[in-house]
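Hi everyone,

Forwarding the result from last night's run.
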Amino acid sequence: MELASFLAGERWSDHPRCTHPLLAELARLANDHTSDAHRSDLAVHIPAVIGLTSDDVRVDARIALRCARTALPVVSEDRQRVMAVSVLTADRVLADLEGRSPDVLEEDSLWALGQVPHAAQWAHRFAGGVGVSLRGFRRHSAPNTVRCAVQGIGEACATDTDAVLRELLSDAIVDVAAIRNATSVQAEPGAWASLCNLTRGR
């Protein structure tokens, strides 16, 4: 995110204005929970997040849902209930924003919940009558979901969690771009290659 701020012409910061705050948080967390050997693999995504921002609450919901769905089948059992509730919550927030029934979950949500049936049953009982305000979701639920999901993936006893985190970030970028319906600013190729070489040498 610091390189994104530089390429966008902003002051050097890992919280650049040019990227949606929750997407930037996901990028920082993915960076922190990726092994040293594969951290530089995330650099290919930096140009894609420049200019990728929006005030649309669907962006927050879609990022949170993507993180929860990805983490649910991977994280340890003690985290699965939290992630299952997060899937239900984010999916229902999206349903409200998109004008669909909150009782009809998206296919990918159903698949993720189906991988952990006991946690899913518990989550349905827990979240059945619990509502969430859009403000509360944006300020608390969505960021907490992203943090818990990435940390859970990073600490999971699964093969190649680095690849899972890298794909999660890539998919989230695609999700946000689809909502925003915009093309991200691309860095000048020569300058970008030099910056990548510089970061690998640190």
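The chain is about 65% helix and 0% strand.

Cheers,
N.
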